[in-house]
Request: fold
Amino acid sequence: MNDPTLHFSRRKFIRLCGGTIAALTLGQWPSAEAAQQRAAEAPLRQKQHVAHNLRGGLDIQYVRQLITRDPAVSRTIMWQADELLGSVRVEYRLPNAARSLQTEASYDFFTGADRSFYIYSSTLTNLTPDTAYEYRILCGSYGTDWFPLRSAGRSTCRGLLFPDSQCIDYNCWRKIALLAATRNPDAELFINMGDLVDNGQAQDQWRAWFDGVNGICEHLPLVPLMGNHEAYSLDWEYCLPRDYLHEFTLPNNGSSRFAEYYFSFDFGPVHFTVLNTQFEELDGLRPGLLDEEIPWLRQDVRSSSKPWKVILMHRDIFTYSDQPDGPDIGNIFMPIFDELKIDLVLSAHLHTYRNRGHIYNHQPADHGPVYIVTGVAGDIRYPDIWINPTFDKVVAPQPETDNYITFEASPRQFDLRCFLPNGDEIDHLQLQKQVKK
Ligand SMILES: [Fe+2]
Ligand SMILES: [Fe+2]
Reply:
């Protein structure tokens, strides 16, 4: 289902731009100190750099919550350090309670293409649904401040969603993320649709990305999708997404070859299925992803009793190119989405916002999944992407700026809204369904 009208190949575009972007990101990329200075000076900043001093002279960095298969009863906490920490664990409790529990943390010494450091992970289990907790990191007799943590409820879901956040200057990402979080203090999770960073093996970029969600990722569970830019090496060749896989502990998909490449989770009345669309990048390095993923998708969705079924995937169903630069995602997945009665398919990759409405059997319809391309949350834009008059019901004002999305679900209703940085709402999708009694 290729669109023949837009005359550029994304693969060719990345090849052509790679040198320029590499020069910007690798040669002139601001140092961590410069990024810290920028953060301290920026008016939107609420806190300083994300290093949390343990009062024992050791700093831990980038404390974050990660989604689990059932976030009503469990939550993964991760953080990083340049030094090996002894006797590390997570302590958690009801707010200000005298009694607390502790869990051990595992660690991994990660040697990336340009930096080595320790990554720690600990999963809290047996939480009570819809309950406020607080947690902190302990190292020996020292500890961080307490951070809030709320377990998911069973009947509602309120979240933030950010499309591609890859940047040349991650101030753009920081500002849109903080705007969205500040305007939506009741958000319970946040999703990033892949291409979190422009070069997935550049640790300075990952650190700039984490700086952008300082004050957010400690409080809300993150759902990070893998995009194609997570599978590029520093010299812009395809590579396995080592940094992404080490940075995030993600729900178990039962696969021995592609653990954490794709996964699913529940949140309130919604079952989210996160697909991996990086076949082009990965097939020459680790073949078999698509063959493994399709039967898993069918089994995963059919086994869920949640009223809402939502697909999250980085690449879109249309290529918008006369020179397809990868497998035809639409022809592969759209018949399966019809078969599984998926409610909503959210994609990214094109750096544009499009609401295509319902599509069934490859045609506009009054039923079937609703397809939305979620826009761009970074400063890398692809200009003049063709508007498809057959499918594109809502298109962001041109030329596009960055955007973010909010969503709220109850068993009967699903609302999704798209906002510009100035607060303008440019789209509101509302889906409703009858709930069987
Ligand atoms: Fe992208
Ligand atoms: Fe992409």
The longest strand covers residues 116-124. Residues 164, 166, 195, 227, 229, 349, 351 surround fe (ii) ion (ligand 1) (CB under 6 Å). The domain at 52-150 is CATH 2.60.40.380 (Immunoglobulin-like). The helical segments are 10-27, 32-41, 171-183, 203-212, 242-247, 279-282, 289-302, 329-339.
